[in-house]
Design brief:
It comes from Anabarilius grahami (Kanglang fish). The protein is of the alpha/beta class. It has 30 helices and seven strands. The two termini are 65 Å apart.
Length: 698
Amino acid sequence: MKGDRKRAFNKMWYTQHQWLEYSVSRDSAYCFPCRHFSLPGIQETSFTSSLGYSNWKKAMYKDGGFRGHEKSENHVNAMIAWNEHKKRILTDTSMLNALDKKHQEVVEQNRTYIKTVAEVLFFTATQNISQRGHLETDASTKKGNFLGIMDLIAKHSPLIDKKLKAVGNAKYTSNTIQNEILECLSDMVRESIISEVKENKYFSIIVDETRDLKKKEQLSLVLRYYYNGAVHESFLDFKQATELDAEGLTQKIIQCLETYGLEYRSNLVGQGYDGASVMSGRHSGVAARIKAKTNHAFYVHCNAHCLNLVLVDSTKSVPESETFFCLLQKLYVYMSGSYVHQKWLSVQKEMYQGAPRELQRLSDTRWASRYQACKNIKDRLPAVLRVLHDIDVENRGERSVEARGLLAQLDLTFIGTLVIFSKVLGEAKFLADMLQSTSLDLAKAVDLVEAFQDTLQDLRSDSSFDEIWKDTVDTGKQCNVAVETVVKRPQKISSRLSGSIVESTVGQRRCKEGDMELFRSGIFFPILDCLSGEMQRRFSKSNCSIMQGIQALNPKSRNFLDEETIFSFARIYECDTDDIKHELHQVRRVLERKFQTGIELSSLLEFTIFLEPFKEVFYQLFRLCCIAVALPVSSASCERSFSALKLIKTHLRTTMTDDRLSNLGVLSIEVRRAKCLDLDDFVRRFASHHRNRRIQLF
């Protein structure tokens, strides 16, 4: 006690004695190093006992208290051990920090390297060029595109050069690692597509099949769906079709949908195939089998394919048109000969300005593309006739004989047929190009088909024929082809043969010079009539409830928002008609206010985009619109994927596996989506999937 004040522990003692520690509960002081770092068997003191030191009066004595304890031998030894311990901790922490820093540096270098490898593979995949070479050893001068590009990058990057020259097998350039990287990249693209499909819920499948250079039947699967204000047709996969019957193809398609977690039983609303019987069979085709497994998978025959069949069948129905296209092909083959082709180019340079044109080969699968062949012949017909005439007068054996035969057939009938098909195929090509658009919906497709049918009807008029005949005569005069009939002296008939002579050929419909009426009735009308009849037969599905319902959602249709039509459409897809009735009433009022502002809707897609902000209010109507725009129009996206397939699997790359082909196809076809991939996300995915770890990425 100091006066009436009780003595206590002073916190300032901590700064004077670093070994000191204090217990509040026991009001006692202790020595930390003596308690923890004393040698075994040392006698206990007040600073190490459980009671501790609490004689505060003598705490700061010179020879006692804290100072006296500091002079003891046991305390000195404990302090030495404590200081050594602290030094050891600091040293170990520095080593750990140094190791961790080195680890992070190695990881960052490895991540940069693996990203570079992935980017090179991605570049070669999107450019449809091969990755591997025939001989990929270090001594080889042609290692392939992948290793060649890596070596080129190594010249400008010491890090890449160091990794590629490292001893061992951690270069990550083998074909196995390439397959793993391509699989990771393509899976990221597929997951992006699947997430969009699942967000919108409703989708259609478009499937077609082709044979690759390895004689394998490859099945192309494309998904069509509405997402974020646009219609998407996204390529998903190439699958080898080992069984080509309806059951085998159906199982392959269903298996693919299940692999990617797509709910096809309730959300698959449409199917798009070509007209092959195995796909479109009414009772046991692929479309019928998938329809039996799902609730609403409506089958749509590829409209572009239907248009092609219209042109094929109508052409074969008119002998003159079939002969015309055979003659076009003969001209192409003849003009492609080395000697004739050189003469063809020189004559064009002499007669026309600009670059010479080439005659087009006729396509058997894309008849609308024959428009360009007709156009080139029509524009360069004088040059064609001159080439044939020059070769004819050369008298060079078989070449001159063929020229003479072709020249004899390029008469007024040929020119007239050429003018007709130049006009008709020009309209058909526009329709074919529109039908192959990924953003086109069935409502717009019906409008375009009807517009083409109206065009055919307009062509079948006297005024249109007069224009075509005038163009035919003008072209004939320009080419020095006879356009007027030469009056000949009538043949004198023997009186003994009177009544037995037929002066005209039986069944001959080829018109003579200037015989306009025979051309009109024998060629012009039959071609247009066959086209119109085939169009009516091939495109007659517009009368079904689904097509009528889609038209009722088209703002330009006469039946726009017609209740009965939409109700029939809604029942097919199990929508609540009571809710739709109320929604139709409200949406009409909203549209009236929108139209008053001068804004109009022109297509089903625009109407769907208009409803999207109000999809919670117009739930059933927006659902029907999403279904309508998701229904396929054509299988052109599959055809485009086959073009990519031919670029990927060339004659020198036929040994690639089906998985590698599919992954390369996804990156090549969905290139815009693939370019948006996050490479950091790729590294995380690759690190988690790649089990044989020889490179640290985390």
